[in-house]
Amino acid sequence: MAATLLTIALAGCGGSSATKSSGAPSLSSFKAGFTAAKAQFRQLGSDLGTAVEKAATKTDVQLAVQFDKLSAQAKAQAAALRKLDPPAKFKSELSHLSTSLDSVATDLGGIASAANAHDATKAKAATTTLITDAAKVKTADNALTAQLGLPKTG
């Protein structure tokens, strides 16, 4: 299970700090914002990978705190993506990406809750869902990356 999570984590997830402009959506502005978001996706993936690698050395309480923080990070990234102002042809894929990140955040929160409850069955179920949702993030990220002509990472 840890190896699978690590593989997904290293593939990358995401967010952004770019905000909507007051004028018409600009492709260059959106591209710049999305590129910044990709850097944050990678950081979330890296942080998740580290959490998984060190999970065996942590108590359930420590794991709960760590996965709660990762959940908050994913929620913030999804919210930041929603603040980007994409041209119309990118809106649907960006929405799919932010919704998928929200799902990842929920899954990470579920792992944290399961750790707090010392419930390995619920943790496994949340992890299985996380794997599915992380794949959706990666698919949406790859699609937007390709549509924008950006280099593929991870």
What distinguishing features does this structure have?
77% helix, mainly alpha, elongated, Four Helix Bundle (Hemerythrin (Met), subunit A), 154 residues, 5 helices, disordered N terminus, single chain
Offer a concise description of the structure.
The protein starts with a helix and ends in a 7-residue tail after the last helix.
Low-confidence segments: 1-21
Tally of alpha and pi helices: 5
Q: Tell me the strand percentage band.
A: under 5%
Rounded to the nearest angstrom, the radius of gyration is 16 Å
Query: Roughly how many Å apart are the termini?
Result: 20 Å
Helical fraction equals over 70%
Global outline: elongated
Q: How would you describe what is shown here?
A:
- The protein has 154 residues and is mainly alpha-helical.
- The protein has a single domain (26-147), classed as Up-down Bundle (Four Helix Bundle (Hemerythrin (Met), subunit A)), CATH 1.20.120.
- Helices cover 77% and strands 0% of the residues.
- It contains five helices and no strands.
- Mean pLDDT is 85; it is low at 1-21.
Protein topology:
Layout: H1 2-11, H2 27-53, H3 60-83, H4 88-116, H5 120-147
Helix pairs in contact: 1-2, 1-5, 2-3, 3-4, 4-5
